[in-house]
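User: Here's a chain of 382 residues. Predict its fold as tokens.
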Amino acid sequence: MAITEKPHYELLDGLRGVAALLVVLYHINEGFAFASGAPVIDFMNHGYLAVDFFFILSGFVIGYAYDDRWSRGLTLWQFAKRRLIRLHPMVVAGVLLGALAFGIQGFEKWDHTAVSPWALVAALICGLLFIPAVPGATYEVRGNGEAFPLNGPAWSLFFEYIGNLLYAMLIRRLSTRALACFTAVLGMGVLFFASFDVSGYGMFGVGWTVGGWGFLQGLLRMTFPFSMGLLMARTFRPRPLKGIFWICALALVAVFFVPYIPSSGRLCLNGVFESGCIILVFPAVVYVAACGIGESALTRRTYNFMGAISYPLYITHYPVMYLFYAWLIDRQLYTFAQTWPVVIGVVAVNIAIARLLLKFYDEPVRRWLTSRSSLTVSKIAK
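Assistant: Prediction complete.
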């Protein structure tokens, strides 16, 4: 008996697209802070929490799509190939675009130190193979500690891969009760880590570097929301809700636009807020969105479009941001009012790149790889 594909949660795909677009806007504002040397991002301060939302979505979708397939013949190798085909073509595109952007900037670190061609080649190979750069290594070509200096946001896909492997090799074997206990322990770890500012950042934006405790911090940041998503997929009981896509999207906007919250004593209030979003708010948004039905035709077109470009937009937008940051620094521009035509252009270019890569690269490559890998669904038999 063949395993048939399950229907998609299209509203969740659409919310992933909304979050990806908000990440682009966050990184634009991060550029203003970077260029001016400001310690805090004034506008859309919590946009980096979109990554934690992505991890919850990923766990939910993986659990929904694959939990019942292992008993019907799905192997670890088949699962790994499916995930590689789904994710890695755009990882390659993001790294190549990052190398192109680095070349346009003159093959220099942010402090204008020249980078050798061999260092760039090493960074390119490591990026393609998902080998993170150690801060200070010759192939850490931008000089600011990024694990993937040619395409910074690739760090979250690195941990996504780890989460997928942990799921396939271990977590899927846990009973629902054991998974709930595992998730609860990780949730307490997130609460402690964020509330007492263990990273020293005053926020939960960790994982982008493997320096110091960066890898373990990123692992915690991924494993809790990913496990929470898996647990939700196992226990999900839908209650049909009409017209909730825009409500969920506005909930994400509201969270991301909360200003930085100053600490009080030893307690990091900003961390308390962020852990509350990750532990309570984001799972609630995913649950409500998964229950959504009865959207208008315009809303369906909107979330279908946003869902389609969500992954390409997220994983390929940062090379354009590198060029935007360099432009801000060179011209000493620090505000939206000074740069709004360029900002609109940056957003439009990133959406256009995502759309073009989706239609003319990602989808054709994935179809070709699927046909060559014997991974058609009909061949994963009971």
